[in-house]
């Protein structure tokens, strides 16, 4: 096992465990630790004023330290007190898997950390975003339940083939943007590809719509009033640039509603508008309103068509409770109702999320087809027939029968047996020597073997994934690319060593280090590095070394002149150092 488990993680199904990877805490360098410390100190200083009160409280409850990157399996010992757990993954994982983890009360944390160059914001999920953004806020019980429920509903959302293409493109951009030395033209090409895909998505899928809701709440949500909002979205909580920007009048504030589902977002740019929920309970209300529009609750012809468009594994549930899981390929319709459905490839039948004995993918290897609806000229549906009704209509073992459905589907053959559900309703009828036709088209013929006819007058639900998780081999996850771990130059390793020396000094592990000597080397060998001089300035302030402070400030001023983009970061670092001494 590549990670330390616990009772919550033990409950995860196998297909989710395939995404978990070891955190490899020893891979974090002293530069990574300095990036974490800078962002967290700045965040706590600023966010204590503008974030929802649950944030600062949650930092304490979840045991997240300001001074060092959290060991998430250490975090788990604290998270379990609020019924949650955390796991490490490699960057973005498929949206449905991400949602499903949430449904099991598991926080997915990308264990990499952003480069110093991207300290204010990165499109890549990283431990600052996940650990410092998502984890603290789930200490609020109302919000934690929203997150769990969101995952439960979200993992049933049906995607389109284009969603998978966009997911791959976003993952690719996040990887190359965080990789050292990626040419700017390659990043711009990836960004343009995402823009092209976003502009040509067609009618948004359920997954696209619910991802919009996730973005405008879990990632970029504001809470309170439009005039005086507070931050609770993890994307804002973990971005020291955007958390300040979003509070200005440059960003439009809109009362949160289901309309957010139709509002697109661009992961590569700061958001021009944000939604404000009055409280966490209202988030759940909107989520339920959205769920009422989904195929998982509406079923019907539109639900089947969504599954066909997805070109992925999905399930429909009939009015009898029979569940058909597979890749839906074709539907015959009449008067806006499905009258025959067909899957292709391995298909499984289930009832109440448990596979029916004898109806696994090994049996239905090449697909499954069945009529849906009522019999022609008979008021009572097959599923509502009692034993006497079934005998009267010759729907009985050993009878050779011709069944004609209202949609024109004909099933002719000899009945072998029927399968009933717990309520005593017939959910499946098995025929031999069976022919199934629609008008002049043959849908099933005797030489293909036994014919299993599903019983159900309507499709009550349609959703992503299988009914019984054990029916299919879901351990098929292969990332098209993984995060890039570059080979470090000798100079980079040397810089890491100097960061480590300063960290060791601050933590009292080695107080014999000459900070002046380190500063002189940084000044001459690494003239563009600003974060270590800021840390040295903090130590000089604590030591009341005025001459050393002035030396460092003069150097930082020269860095600001040469690279104005980091000027505000340097200024904020100095303010933090000054404030910590006062406090």
Question: What can you tell me about this protein's structure?
Answer:
- This protein is an alpha+beta fold and 583 residues long.
- It contains 22 helices and 17 strands.
- It has helices spanning 7-10, 14-17, 30-50, 53-61, 72-79, 95-103, 127-137, 141-154, 161-178, 184-199, 206-219, 234-237, 242-245, 280-291, 295-298, 300-310, 387-392, 490-506, 515-525, 531-542, 546-562, 567-582; strands spanning 85-89, 106-110, 222-224, 229-231, 252-255, 273-277, 313-318, 322-334, 337-351, 354-355, 369-371, 400-404, 409-420, 426-438, 441-444, 451-454, 459-464.
- The strands form 4 sheets. Strands 7, 8, 9, 10, 11 and 17 form a 6-stranded antiparallel beta sheet that branches.
- The longest helix is centred in the N-terminal third of the chain and has 21 residues, at 30-50.
- The protein is elongated.
What attributes does this structure have?
single chain; 583 residues; five-stranded antiparallel sheet; 22 helices; elongated; metal-binding; Aro-AA_hydroxylase_C_sf; iron
Task: Please render the helix and strand layout as text.
Layout: H1 7-10, H2 14-17, H3 30-50, H4 53-61, H5 72-79, E1 85-89, H6 95-103, E2 106-110, H7 127-137, H8 141-154, H9 161-178, H10 184-199, H11 206-219, E3 222-224, E4 229-231, H12 234-237, H13 242-245, E5 252-255, E6 273-277, H14 280-291, H15 295-298, H16 300-310, E7 313-318, E8 322-334, E9 337-351, E10 354-355, E11 369-371, H17 387-392, E12 400-404, E13 409-420, E14 426-438, E15 441-444, E16 451-454, E17 459-464, H18 490-506, H19 515-525, H20 531-542, H21 546-562, H22 567-582
